[in-house]
Design brief:
The protein is α+β, with helices and mostly antiparallel strands. It folds into 4 domains: 160 residues, 3-Layer(aba) Sandwich (Rossmann fold), CATH 3.40.50; 111 residues; 65 residues, Carboxypeptidase-like, regulatory domain (Immunoglobulin-like, Sandwich); 156 residues, no CATH class. The protein has 17 helices and 18 strands. Strand 9 and strand 10 form a beta hairpin. Helix 5 runs antiparallel to helix 6, helix 5 runs parallel beside helix 7 and helix 14 packs antiparallel against helix 15. It starts with a helix and ends with a strand. The relative contact order is 0.07.
């Protein structure tokens, strides 16, 4: 009966275990393949400009984004698990040990020596194991100084002595190999060990040298970075031909003397071992309390996206969403994932927390490959991060080509000194006037917000309305003054320079934008006092009118530049020809 029950249980187990394994085998790759990694990014420039854009606000927003992805059934890296995984397979912060830790370690070592002298091997091993735990955890820090590295090796060899004197040769040999792996390329103190321990260490060194070692090559960007293995210096990059016994090591590549390098756990195998180090990623990545990227200054979007993809690759591959803060009230998310169109969204937040509906719409847009700014009253289509990079690259190429063309072309002939003085004076006054108009436009927007909050307040309405004329007047004067300065400032060329046409095209673009603002201007119902909806519409119309005025003020001097060269009578060459039928007067000019 018992055999029958056992057979039945085995059959049931076989039928139930196989489907369970199959399900796990089928779902896990799918989950890993679809896993999302949300990477907060922070730079000191934005944090200094707006103190609320800190890691707490970014983490709060990133967590809300993760929750939205989880609600949709997506697999998402938890921030703590991502940090743990990155420290295990990528890099971890350098260990920090206090002076009290070092003092305790030294005390354990000295106590072990005293116990060894008394042949109290049990107590000696207890003290040595306590010292060894700290050495194993913080070898990369303890071995940075040659004297302390030698002390670490000596303490480890005291354990070898305890095994030797208790006639445990196999354990003593294993411990000696571990000591040499823990502190490579360092010799023990000459008079602190018995002849048996020194002979055993020499045998182990010879045996490890006879085994097929691993050869390590280290490349870094930038180069000339210090390489440490288990805290011991091995040279500067590019470094090659480092022979190490097969095993696990902790490597640091330090490009800045003031900063401890992160710990990279590497496994050396027989043959060639190649390690490539990215100094910019090393400097940016942080794993505590959460995995993130931090920059000393404003990093360009390409660098952030590239670093985020590298982090995802180190974790084993993941779809990436990069979170950054434009300000304390606006967060940006950039999507970079295989199978998805690159996209970017902007969301309004309060203390890092977005509205749930805004987050839902933002993730919808990202998954659909649309780049949308949701931070304003109405969603606005914008360029994705990849389109921004393409635009910057094109602008850089155009700038380089322009510089090359300019260097090859002849320099223009400056205008007379009195004209240049008058032109710069007029141009400065015009720029100051346009700047004042921008300031008034911004101020009017703030007054409009107050007016919206209290639509029945006649004082707020009057104040908001009075600033309108100031915006228009200063913009018009600034555009006229800068335009009038152009003929006095622009040097003479044989023909209209290429940059004159380029600037004129930009002016046409601004003029087109001004026309667009005028055509699409929001309606303003009359009367609008005490009607909040009407006030909001009128305030929006006022801001649109201000942008129109500023666009026209900027377009005017830019359009003037090619016109100046078209009509300036430079190198006009008259010629007269007389024939029997009459005379012909010709004037030739190069445009």
């Amino acid at each position: 009966m018992r055999r029958l029950v056992c057979a039945f249980a085995a059959v049931v187990a076989a039928f139930t275990a196989a489907p369970a394994y199959a399900q796990d085998h089928e779902e896990r790759p799918s989950s890993e393949a679809l896993r999302w990694l949300v990477v907060p990014t922070l730079d000191e420039a934005s944090e200094a400009a707006d103190g609320d854009v800190g890691i707490e606000a970014l983490h709060t927003f990133a967590e809300a984004l993760r929750q939205e992805l989880v609600v949709r059934g997506e697999s998402v890296w938890r921030p703590d698990r991502a940090s743990e995984r990155f420290e295990a397979v990528g890099s971890a912060p350098a260990p920090r040990i206090s002076q009290s830790d070092i003092d305790l370690w030294v005390e354990h070592s000295r106590a072990a020596v005293r116990y060894l002298a008394r042949a109290d091997y049990k107590a000696a091993r207890r003290e040595l194991k306590a010292a060894q735990r700290l050495a194993d955890r913080a070898a990369a820090e303890l071995n940075r100084e040659a004297a302390r590295a030698q002390q670490v090796l000596d303490t480890c060899l005291f354990m070898v002595r305890a095994y030797v004197e208790t006639k445990n040769g196999a354990a003593a040999r294993r411990q000696a190999r571990e000591c040499r792996r823990l502190v490579p390329r360092v010799e023990p103190s000459a008079f602190r060990h018995t002849p048996e321990v020194r002979d055993l260490l020499a045998e182990v060194d010879a045996q490890m040298a006879s085994e097929a070692p691993g050869t390590l090559e280290v490349q870094s960007e930038p180069s000339d970075c210090l390489v440490r293995i288990n805290g011991v210096q091995f040279g500067r990059t590019p470094l090659s031909g480092i022979e190490l016994p097969v095993g696990a090591y902790r490597m640091q590549v330090e490009c800045e003397e003031a900063h401890r390098g992160r710990i990279h756990r590497i496994g050396i195998v027989s043959g060639n071992n190649m390690f490539t180090f990215d100094g910019s990623l090393e400097h940016a990545v942080r794993t505590r309390p959460v995995l993130r990227l931090e920059y000393d200054a404003m990093a360009d979007r390409a660098e952030r996206m590239d670093h985020a993809r590298q982090v995802a690759a180190i974790l084993g591959g993941a779809h990436v969403m990069v979170v950054s803060g434009s300000s304390s009230s606006v967060m940006r998310v950039d999507l970079n994932a295989d199978g998805y169109e690159p996209a970017s969204v902007w969301l309004a937040v309060r203390h890092g927390v977005p509205e749930a509906e805004d987050m839902r719409r933002a993730v919808d847009a990202l998954f659909e490959g649309r780049s949308v700014d949701f931070s304003g009253p109405q969603p606005i289509a914008r360029a994705s991060w990849r389109a921004e990079l393409a635009s910057v690259a094109a602008m850089g190429a155009a700038t380089a080509a322009a510089a090359e063309t300019a260097s090859e072309s002849k320099r223009g002939v400056p205008r007379p000194r009195n004209q240049r003085i008058a032109g710069w004076s007029l141009f400065g006054v015009g720029v100051a006037s346009i700047g004042a108009s921008i300031g008034l436009h911004v101020w009017r927007g703030e007054l409009g917000d107050r007016f919206i909050e209290t639509p029945a307040n006649l004082g707020a309405a009057q104040q908001w309305n009075d600033v309108r004329m100031g915006v228009w007047t200063t913009a018009a004067f600034g555009g006229a003054a800068t335009s009038a300065a152009m003929p006095l400032l622009l040097p003479d060329y044989e023909r209209t320079p290429w940059w004159g046409w380029t600037v004129g095209a930009v002016g046409l673009g601004l003029a087109g934008y001004a026309i667009y603002e005028g055509v699409t201007m929001t309606g303003c119902a009359e009367p609008y006092i005490a009607d909040q909806a009407a006030v909001r519409s009128c305030v929006a119309r006022g801001q649109e009118a201000g942008r129109l005025a500023l666009a026209l003020a900027g377009a005017a001097p830019l359009l003037t530049i090619p016109l100046v060269y078209l009509f300036r009578p430079l190198r006009a060459e008259p010629s007269v020809s007389v024939t029997g039928q009459g005379a012909v007067v010709q004037v030739r000019k190069v445009f």
